[in-house]
Amino acid sequence: MATPPPLSSFRVRPRFEHALAVAPEAARARILAGLTRCTPRFEVHDFPGFIGLHLPPGQRRYWSPRLFIMLDPAPDGTTRVTGTYGPEIEVWGVFLYGYLITGLLGTFSGVFGGAQMLVGNEPWAFWITGSMGVIAGVLYLGAQLGQKLGAAQTYQLHEAYRAAVGPIADEAAAGAGERTVTMAGGGI
């Protein structure tokens, strides 16, 4: 039984995980063949270790998602599929460095403010610590806004993936029970 796709969640990068009842090479070939049929609607990038599915440049916005599909062999001969939704690399870099800078400045200013308190000085560095917390919160809210704005495009990516693995996913679900793991907002 299919569950709703992870259109958006409170995670920064929604994801899904499930198993396919074929070897990784066969799963990769069938997924690529299925996604290639959707090429006018999507850009498909085949990399060692994963497959990238992007919207074409004419449909991309700042909040547009992309899907990275990782295929890992499972001990029982099946394939473990992990799909991660996220913004384009340029946008992800802004958030990554934003969190890094606010985290570092917040931590160091907190330590400095504590040292100021210990020596009896005015702990003005705590103002920086608090402001870095506020900026990190604004970054998180910006990421959530982008997810909500890109929910329809996330659904398009997920449906293209489901169409590519449809018969394989149905075989896996009919096997030893559904092995879908919902990590954020939904599974396959």
> Architecture of the largest domain, according to CATH?
2-Layer Sandwich
Find the count of extended strands (DSSP E, 2+ residues): 5
> What is Rg?
21 Å
Strand order of the largest sheet: 1-5-4-3-2
Count of separate structural domains:
2
Q: What string gives the helices and strands in order?
A: EHEEEEHHH
- Mind telling me the CATH class of the largest domain? Alpha Beta
**Which stretches of 5+ consecutive residues score pLDDT under 50?**
176-188
The number of helical elements comes to 4
Q: Roughly what is the average pLDDT, rounded to an integer?
A: 82
Helix content range of the residues, please? 40-55%
**CATH-defined fold name of the largest domain:** TATA-Binding Protein
Distance between the amino and carboxyl termini: 9 Å
β content, as a range? 15-25%
CATH superfamily of the largest domain: Kinase associated domain 1, KA1
| Cα shape | elongated
Class per helix and strand makeup: alpha+beta
Description:
With 188 residues, the chain is of the alpha+beta class. It folds into 2 domains: 15-87 and 152-174, Kinase associated domain 1, KA1 (TATA-Binding Protein, 2-Layer Sandwich), CATH 3.30.310; 92-146. It is 49% helix and 18% strand. It has helices at 24-36, 89-118, 125-149, 151-174, and strands at 15-20, 43-47, 50-54, 65-73, 79-87. A 5-stranded antiparallel sheet has the order 1-5-4-3-2. It is elongated, with a radius of gyration of 21 Å. The N and C termini lie close together (9 Å).
